[in-house]
Design goal:
About 50% of the residues lie in helices and about 10% in strands. The chain is of the alpha+beta class. It has a two-stranded antiparallel sheet. The longest helix is centred in the middle third of the chain and has 37 residues. This is Tetratricopeptide repeat protein 1-like protein.
């Protein structure tokens, strides 16, 4: 962006400013999904000795306040 601000006639800089934000967003989404998957695996590793998994917990967001509540579900496969 700084190159484009200094010299708007540089076509490559303009093209990169159009292309890169989407690529960055896609990369960030992939990284976020990977991180959440690894956190879920870690949670399952910790919960497994107790006969539980992350599927035993439901997270719901309150749309009015933005806060989250976590509910325990005894049989997660039966409640779907």
């Amino acid at each position: 962006k700084s190159i484009l601000e200094k010299d708007p006639s540089i076509h490559q800089a303009r093209e990169a400013c159009m292309r890169l934000p989407k690529q960055i967003e896609e990369r960030n989404e992939r990284l976020k999904e990977e991180m959440l998957g690894k956190l879920k695996d870690l949670g399952n590793l910790v919960l497994r000795p107790f006969g539980l998994s992350t599927e035993n917990f439901q997270i719901k967001q309150d749309s009015s306040t933005g806060s989250y509540s976590i509910n325990f579900v005894q049989n997660p496969n039966n409640n779907r």
